Amino acid sequence: MAGYVKVVTISNVTLKYKPEDTFLKFVPDLFMDIELNVKDGWTDKLTIFGSVKHDLPSSDPKSWHSAFKIRTFFEKALGKKDLKLQADHTIPEEWLRDVVGRQIKVISYPTTKTKPNGKNYWNYHNMVGSISDDDNYLKNDLQKQIDNGWVKFYKPPDSESETTTSTPDVDAIKKSGLAEALDL
Predict the structure, then answer these.
(1) pLDDT of residue 24
(2) In 3-state terms, what secondary structure has residue 122?
(3) Overall average pLDDT of the 25-39 stretch
(4) 3-class DSSP state of 174
(5) Contact, 24 vs 40, CB < 8 A?
(6) Confidence (pLDDT) at 170
(7) Which own/partner contact pairs does 21-28 have at CB distance under 8 Å and 24+ positions apart?
(8) 60-88, pLDDT tens digit by residue?
(9) How far apart, in Å, are the Cα atoms of 55 and each of 17, 29, 64, 83?
């Protein structure tokens, strides 16, 4: 199964409404950069974005539309369910404040893009888990997204390196005296 799950602490959240200065080819309604304290002061960034349905009342769960990933982030970080947007389809300020310092689970995966040293870059999947969620919750979600073609630049594991086993060097084992101990 794809991905590496780890526990991180949320150190900052920056939310922008309808930003035009993103790397995207479209302008989402909500764009969040989440600063994560990964380990020993090392930080990283998770980006989640999406659009809401302004023609639906904010009390309707479907009003989250493609921003449901943002709702999931807040629900998992705050330990709450069925969070609703404010009447004007915005995020309450207290959610932004209250998630700082909370721990969540994130999952990362290798990409097809390579660094100058030849190793692959890793990306974070845009779904998160609560600290109590089983790691398979995120792994299954990521695998489903990969299988449906929603994860771009995913680098599958090398099937050859996963299935190749090395044959023990019997002559070296015999010379070392280990063969007698193992009764070979």
Answers:
(1) 82
(2) strand
(3) 93
(4) helix
(5) no
(6) 52
(7) 22/49, 24/49, 28/66, 28/67
(8) 999 999 999 999 999 999 999 999 999 99
(9) 17, 13, 11, 18
**In terms of Cα–Cα distance, which of 30, 44, 135, 33 is closest to 85?**
30
Give the list of residues 6+ apart from residue 67 with CB closer than 8 angstroms, or none.
28, 29, 30, 49, 50, 51, 52
* Residue 30: its H or E element: strand 30-39
Return d(Cα 114, Cα 62) in angstroms, integer. 38
Give the C-alpha separation, 160 to 55, whole Å. 51
Indicate the helix (H) or strand (E) that contains 103.
strand 103-114
* Cβ(158)–Cβ(144) below 8 Å: no
